[in-house]
Design brief:
Elements lengths: L11 H8 L2 H4 L4 H17 L5 H20 L11 H13 L12 H37 L4 E6 L2 E7 H26 L1 E2 L15 H8 L3 E2 L3 H36 L7 E2 L18 H13 L2 H9 L13 H24 L2 E2 L14 H10 L4 H14 L21 H15 L1
Parallel strand pairs: 3-4
Antiparallel strand pairs: 1-2, 5-6
């Protein structure tokens, strides 16, 4: 059964092709369709399209379906296209003619879009919480290891002194910017499209402000055509947020894989997050971080995949938009998994506190020597050339004393500023 189906039969191959992965993915949307349907029937009661006893009866029917969803017993029957059709079938089976009235004043277009937006809001809220958890861990580790020096690199060559505190805090601040972008996507999603119907409104006197309030949306997509145009625009905006978070996680995972290797030996990944080799008994591979890197690299392609589906589409609904779900929804699930496992593995990282003492890192203190001479009154360019000549001659005495005081440097991480900024952005999601 399909909400759009008429009397004519359709080809089975065509049916399988058009249904796609909806039965699989719509299990995750069913809860949100119930929320939208509950708000819709209450509004229909307000405008006189449903009697009060009908509103109560349908509401009780939706409550039963909601309980099925929560208990994991809700299923989309074979031959039923999606959760929206399944819910209407269940209501009609229980309530008869009353169940058939639920679709008055809405189209499958705005019904699906409403459920997707409610789903997206819930997912983004969960992702924001997972970002917060990882952020707090990175800040805590930054404070714990703020006095432990490590080599800093540019061009994959040793460059200047860094610290584990500076390194951990860098990724914490990156998550701050990621959360800011996530907030922007959330604000775009948090607008009610219900009542736009197929994209041209309805001749029923729908109270769209009422459904907006009942579903907890922050605002409304006013124009009926534009409400439908947000299908795809919403997913793509979230896609760029996913891209940003995934880029942070992928780069962090790459650092850990690199720094945990024997040639660096800056840190160690806990054994329970590594795998061995079938032939090399000494191996302890950071597979968890490698998989985070790979999965997050794929996630970074999400907005571009979505954009390719949306290219050159005119206004109005098109079946192309159904395919968005097949990339969009699994991407959110994958991102949450990556955030969870990254936090779990990072909690167990162990730091090699004496790594900086290896003589091969002497050269990274050359800038400190240049700066000491500048502080003593030598022009910078002269100090630079003098130190460079001493390095070539092999007679430079390396003073490993570090005296960095400006905000965001080794000696003054500025973590309180980062935490305060994060707190302000995260307050939006609370």
């Amino acid at each position: 059964m399909k909400l759009w189906q008429k009397e004519e039969s359709i080809d089975k191959i065509f049916e399988r092709f058009t249904v796609g992965k909806d039965p699989e993915l719509d299990v995750y949307l069913a809860k949100y369709d119930v929320i939208g349907s509950r708000a819709h029937i209450k509004m229909l009661g307000q405008i006189g399209l449903l009697k009060s006893e009908e509103v109560i009866a349908i509401g009780l029917g939706l409550d039963k379906i909601d309980q099925m969803i929560d208990s994991g017993t809700f299923e989309i029957s074979e031959g039923v296209e999606d959760c929206h059709s399944q819910i209407e079938i269940l209501l009609t089976e229980e309530l008869g003619e009353i169940g058939k009235k639920i679709h008055s004043g809405r189209s499958r277009n705005d019904q699906v879009l409403t459920a997707l937006k409610l789903f997206a809001k819930s997912e983004l809220e969960e992702i924001a919480t997972l970002i917060k958890d990882l952020f707090e861990l990175l800040i805590a580790m930054s404070e714990r290891y703020k006095k432990v020096l490590m080599p800093g690199y540019t061009h994959m060559q040793i460059a200047m002194p860094s610290s584990f505190g500076l390194w951990f805090a860098a990724y914490a601040e990156s998550l701050l910017d990621d959360l800011l972008q996530l907030k922007s996507s959330y604000q775009l999603v948090d607008k009610n499209p219900l009542g736009s119907a197929a994209g041209y409104g309805s001749s029923f006197p729908l109270n769209r402000l009422s459904t907006t309030e009942k579903m907890g949306f922050g605002g409304i997509n006013v124009n009926a055509i534009y409400a439908q145009m947000t299908r795809g625009k919403m997913e793509k905006s979230i896609g760029f947020s996913v891209n940003s978070i995934a880029a942070t996680l992928s780069k962090f995972a790459m650092d850990v894989c690199l720094y945990s290797g024997q040639n660096f030996n800056f840190l160690k990944v806990d054994k329970k997050y590594t795998t061995g080799s079938s032939i090399m008994p000494h191996k302890s591979n950071p597979d968890g971080f490698e998989l985070v890197r790979a999965k997050c690299n794929l996630l970074q392609a999400l907005p571009y995949e979505l954009n390719m589906m949306l290219l050159n589409l005119p206004s109005g609904y098109h079946r192309d938009l159904q395919v968005l779900k097949e990339r969009f929804m699994p991407a959110l699930f994958s991102l949450k998994d990556c955030l969870k496992i990254t936090r779990a593995m990072t909690t167990q990282l162990s730091i090699e506190a004496e790594v900086i003492n290896d003589p091969k890192y002497d050269l990274i203190f050359s800038v400190e020597e240049v700066n000491r001479r500048v502080t003593a009154g030598v022009p910078f360019r002269d100090a630079y050339h003098a130190v460079s000549a001493s390095i070539k001659q092999g007679n430079l005495h390396f003073n490993r004393k570090i005296d960095h005081t400006h905000i965001g440097s080794i000696g003054n991480l500025g973590n309180d500023l980062i935490k305060e900024s994060f707190k302000k952005v995260y307050a939006f999601f609370e």
